[in-house]
Design brief:
By secondary structure, the chain is of the alpha+beta class. 14% of the residues lie in helices and 19% in strands. The chain has helices spanning 2-21, 90-94, and strands at residues 51-56, 61-65, 73-75, 79-80, 83-84, 106-107, 114-118, 124-128, 131-132, 154-156.
Amino acid sequence: MRRSAVAGGFAAAMLIVATACGSSATTSTAPSNSVPAQSPSQSQPQSSAGLKSAQSAALGGNIVTDGSGWTLYRFDNDKNNPPTSNCTDQCATMWPAAAAVSDTQVTGVDQNLVGSIKRPDGTMQLTLNGWPLYRYTGDKQPGDTNGQDVGQVWYVSTPDGQKAGETAGSSPSTSTNPSGY
């Protein structure tokens, strides 16, 4: 009985987390055989200030990474004009903001597209072509792109701030984890 109560509490917590960052346009539930959302990795290093263009064979083109090679993502529930982050609280735990610093080094990315916004918690976040940038705690090593198309709202950023893996007229692939996390 106690195990059922713990499992039920965990399921309720995951529903709250999924609602925090999932697309508000649609409601979906993960299949019963799906793997629960990963908790943030305590061993993952802090993001290194900087933006770099890197080649991704998996996504078929150039993507944006931080100074340490960790993949950076954009969130469809954000806005780019004016730049606005809508990933806070539990969402920001799974998708930490890419920190903006005064000496951000930029390599292979148009400096004119790089900016920053002040987050609701007062910290500064990097933007690219107006889109706030994030890391994903599900990436375990630099170059991983495990956050691509999560919940059909998270995408690896290209050096011009667009969604990686898409070409004009293409539609995003179907995610195996529709919860947004």
